[in-house]
Automatic annotation (TrEMBL):
Span of domain PurM-like C-terminal: 154-302
Record-annotated PurM-like N-terminal domain positions: 33-138
Record organism: Clostridium homopropionicum DSM 5847
UniProt superkingdom: Bacteria
Name of protein: Hydrogenase expression/formation protein HypE
InterPro entries xref list: HypE (IPR011854), PurM-like_C_dom (IPR010918), PurM-like_C_sf (IPR036676), PurM-like_N (IPR016188), PurM-like_N_sf (IPR036921)
PANTHER family, A to Z: HYDROGENASE EXPRESSION_FORMATION PROTEIN HYPE (PTHR30303:SF4), HYDROGENASE ISOENZYMES FORMATION PROTEIN HYPE (PTHR30303)
Family the entry assigns: Belongs to the HypE family.
One GO biological process term: protein maturation
Length: 337
């Protein structure tokens, strides 16, 4: 099989046919694009999400905290604790595990989260350190927001810049290749993207504002995330390419690596849909969070508008990060000289 997420069709079959016994306490349950489950406990709801880090080699402790806490924030809930599983190959050093846990501890403190427990093991089943986490959050009863709650005519909002996580991964994992196309100032800025991967702040603001759906943008990029929102909500979307917030640094790197930024891993950005997107954008900007209305939720079709031409959007097969060929990058650099 190809590296990356399973296709939407394959994943749907697995999820739909393997749900165990359905419980009355579960208000939001597993489904395509639904990264969190919500369990009712009287006055409060427990919000749970789990994800590993597999595509990056550096900053994996930092990344794993934020991709999981972001799922909780996308429900409008507060992340309160994290469970950590670390699988390490025999070739790794004890210091490697210490460094991963140090990063997790530092990021958990920033988000006021406690490390609740987990599992650490050395195994020859992996060839590099793999970290998987489960984050537990809480929300007032009935307040958690589902990915599948988008409504026709909703505005679609994106927070911050797209591809923050992907750009940070390229800078850190392929530094010797990218330093030839970026200035020192641009490299420093791109490395700092890893400090902007949390969407907890915008999740809280949007939850209080009152929105119909939220979804953090991870593997598959903005198009993948929009597909998940649309599929879960049984609707479509129309977005405008010239409105998509992408930094010039990311554009340069995507050109070098032959990557489509619209299908590139983008933790740090959130998709939000609501009836008055421009009012929410103003509210977010007043709190220092960049936000942009990129289109609207529509019936049926999934459309990208580029130079007044409309294109039907197909679901990304896998994230662009898994399509990188170092050999092709080197050839690309040689052709530039």
């Amino acid at each position: 099989m190809k590296i990356g997420k399973l296709s939407w069709d394959d994943l749907s079959k697995i999820i739909d046919n393997n749900k165990g016994n359905l419980r009355d306490e579960v208000r939001i349950r597993s489904g395509i694009g639904e990264d969190c489950s919500v369990v009712s406990f009287g006055e409060y709801e427990c919000v749970l999400s789990t994800d590993p880090i597999t595509a990056a080699d550096n900053n994996i402790g930092r990344l794993v905290v934020h991709i999981n806490a972001n799922d909780i924030a996308s429900c409008g809930a507060e992340p309160i604790g994290i469970l950590v599983t670390v699988l390490s190959p025999p070739c790794s050093q004890l210091e490697d595990i210490y460094n991963v846990m140090r990063e997790i501890n530092e990021e958990a403190k920033k988000l006021n989260m406690e490390i609740l427990g987990g599992h650490t093991e050395v195994t020859d089943s992996v060839n590099k350190i793999v970290v998987s986490c489960t984050v537990i959050g809480k929300a007032k009863a009935g307040k958690a927001v589902a990915t599948s709650g988008a409504k026709a005519k909703d505005h679609i909002i994106v927070t911050k810049k797209l591809c923050l996580e992907g750009t940070a991964i390229l800078i850190n994992d392929y530094y010797d290749l990218v330093k030839g196309v970026l200035t020192d100032k641009e490299i420093k800025e791109a490395k700092a993207y890893v400090d902007s991967l949390s969407v907890v702040a915008e999740g809280k603001i949007a939850g209080e504002f009152g929105v119909n759906s939220m979804h953090d943008i991870t593997e598959g990029g903005v198009l993948g995330a929009l597909w998940e929102v649309a599929k879960g909500s049984s609707l479509g979307f129309k977005i405008y390419k010239d409105r998509l917030p992408i930094s010039e640094i990311t554009v340069k790197l995507c050109d070098l690596f032959n990557i489509d930024p619209l299908k590139f891993i983008s933790s740090g950005s959130m998709i939000i849909t609501c009836s008055d997107g421009y009012a929410l954008v103003d509210k977010l900007k007043n709190s220092g969070i960049e936000a942009t209305v990129i289109g609207e939720v529509i019936q049926g079709a999934k459309i990208l508008v580029d130079n007044n031409n409309e294109f039907n959007v197909l679901p990304p097969e896998r994230d662009e990060l898994f399509n990188i060929s170092t050999e092709n990058i080197i050839k690309n650099l040689q052709n530039r000289r």
